[in-house]
Amino acid sequence: xxxxxxxxxxxxxxxxxxxxxxxxxxxxxxxxxxxxxxxxxxxxxxxxxxxxxxxxxxxxxxxxxxxxxxxxxxxxxxxxxxxxxxxxxxxxxxxxxxxxxxxxxxxxxxxxxxxxxxxxxxxxxxxxxxxxxxxxxxxxxxxxxxxxxxxxxxxxxxxxxxxxxxxxxxxxxxxxxxxxxxxxxxxxxxxxxxxxxxxxxxxxxxxxxxxxxxxxxxxxxxxxxxxxxxxxxxxxxxxxxxxxxxxxxxxxxxxxxxxxxxxxxxxxxxxxxxxxxxxxxxxxxxxxxxxxxxxxxxxxxxxxxxxxxxxxxxxxxxxxxxxxxxx
Amino acid sequence: xxxxxxxxxxxxxxxxxxxxxxxxxxxxxxxxxxxxxxxxxxxxxxxxxxxxxxxxxxxxxxxxxxxxxxxxxxxxxxxxxxxxxxxxxxxxxxxxxxxxxxxxxxxxxxxxxxxxxxxxxxxxxxxxxxxxxxxxxxxxxxxxxxxxxxxxxxxxxxxxxxxxxxxxxxxxxxxxxxxxxxxxxxxxxxxxxxxxxxxxxxxxxxxxxxxxxxxxxxxxxxxxxxxxxxxxxxxxxxxxxxxxxxxxxxxxxxxxxxxxxxxxxxxxxxxxxxxxxxxxxxxxxxxxxxxxxxxxxxxxxxxxxxxxxxxxxxxxxxxxxxxxxxxxxxxxxxxxxxxxxxxxxxxxxxxxxxxxxxxxxxxxxxxxxxxxxxxxxxxxxxxxxxxxxxxxxxxxxxxxxxxxxxxxxxxxxxxxxxxxxxxxxxxxxxxxxxxxxxxxxxxxxxxxxxxxxxxxxxxxxxxxxxxxxxxxxxxxxxxxxxxxxxxxxxxxxxxxxxxxxx
Lengths: 327, 502
Fold this sequence. Notes:
The complex is a heterodimer.
Chain A: H1 8-18, H2 20-38, H3 45-70, H4 78-94, H5 99-123, H6 128-146, H7 157-164, H8 176-194, H9 196-206, H10 208-213, H11 218-244, H12 255-265, H13 277-296, H14 303-326
Chain B: E1 4-15, E2 18-29, E3 33-37, H1 44-51, E4 59-64, E5 67-69, H2 74-80, E6 82-85, H3 97-102, H4 116-129, H5 146-159, E7 164-168, H6 176-191, E8 195-199, H7 203-209, E9 212-217, E10 220-226, H8 232-240, E11 258-267, E12 271-279, E13 283-287, H9 294-301, E14 309-314, E15 317-319, H10 324-329, E16 332-335, H11 339-343, H12 350-357, E17 363-364, E18 367-368, H13 370-384, H14 400-412, E19 418-422, H15 430-445, E20 449-453, H16 457-463, E21 466-471, E22 474-480, H17 486-493
Helix pairs in contact in B: 8-17, 12-13, 12-14, 14-15
């Protein structure tokens, strides 16, 4: 039996509201317009930079996490990974290791944690949620152990200059963090859309059995993605300590839940098969704008968590509603 | 001309407790459309799963195009030129139609990037070629009707340029027009030299399109016949071909007054305008193929589904059943065929299971009476001869037959008026089968009305006082004790014969 086609203006509006990216974009615009009217500081270059910096590390982590989650594999260990990898880098810097080498060691740490995640999921067959919750806890502990629960500081001047003075990737007057975020985002979006290996994420997520039957190497995909997520988490960590000039013991804590909620707001489904880099970007942007608005208006920033939590649940509820109506 | 493309010899496959294939052979000539026929459980799907690399055989050999082959994975088989469209849909719901046709074989440009323009253009062309100009190649797959999804899946297999294409009951979800188109696709492919193995329960289609037919029964090869020189009756005779008739007590309990009456029950596309009557003391057998809507009919009576239309009368009064709880309260019991997942709490003890079904009766002043539950479970253990030393034993440790007895005890202990039971003896050994049927018969003698689904035809005949045959959601005929024969049931459930109801 053919489905009824809803036509006319109501049908079109309904269709538009079924596309998550558009709904979030509307929310972002609404908030943007409201803010530019109510706050003179909002539309300034300085404020844009603040919002951008706020987003950057989340987006760098969220980009490949989106691809992995489309294929149905979540990763809760990103926050601990970010911290732990940054601590490795920071300790080596303080021990006098050359800057590129220390940074590389940080990134390798991230990849190795990703590899461990993939091993637990693929070889030990532990559910991704449980496996990565395990590594999340474990590496939070490892991180705090290697720095003795204290803040690392006194990094070499040249290392801090990378992000603080925008020496790293900083051209066209765009700050390092922002530039790094844009590059990772564009690469992830391109890979997901145009490169078969990454595009497979949609097939794996929407029907893992059929994906296997049509010859997709699901195990290899899972390994590669967890390692890339690990790499990005470490990258975010290294950028963060260069920017702050220190590595607080709390570095990276809570990032995993913030990023995953932004992904869910942006339309990634925990059931797999759905989501886009654009959606994730908009989800993270929305979160940054809400934080920005609360700061500019001097409202208790804890309200941010209340708002984000509510938006997340409401947007997933809308999804489920649409799904039920369709079937 | 005897140009053989695929030859299977001595194929044997054992599953725990059952030999699915036993020295099976099968020969496919180049360029023919070959039907594979047999009852449910005859081993057709097992054979096809071996040919497409999903299962590895225990013994036997496959020769493809003169070359001995063995497949370890589906991809192996595909590379050698065998493609399969499975009975269950294997679609990617949140990807587009075009992506579903090409999956991992999407066209790429010089840089190795997926060339969406080219992909959608080829998909468009393919859809037009087969007369589906109304299907948008960019539409999300899950928004298509099930029939259209099936067509897209077949086009995906077509795209792979297979030498041998296996279609496992592809028409069960198709409309008549879509079936016509499928036949057209098959003829086109056939002219291009693709050999096709076609599994279907619809004999009509076999006569429309197939060149020859191989019949299998109980995992064994029976006969291969040229379709042009045979008749439906001959095919059915070979498919049935048994002479053992079991005696499970059909016709041994006094049939009383009317208990349950359905008038024109319909539910979605599964159940169409079904009317039937059940009397006290009667075991009514529901015959039909997989997907004929038998389970859905029982679920609708039990309130799992809300019927789109129709009326239900219980002991002469019209009732409206809104939920399973409602049905339970009105004295209807439903025993699912999925006893492991839906029927029992496998990790709990026999007495806990018994308690769960009777929680209301074993509660005094808000407190659960575990002792009473244990006594009740003990009582049924004796009565049903459940083989276990202790009712505290976990249900998962019991054999399938004993699990079924536990499930039965959970429901009959509530003394229902109507017992609906779906495949009560699937996967159960012959001895226990008999004792389950005699238990059911005992309850019928006490005045309970039973509607039973079974795909095991001799069993159904041996146990039922009356048989109602369903085909694609409708009742196609009703047979009383005297007129029941396996062949009649087979004809009715394959849609060959429609019996005017008197």
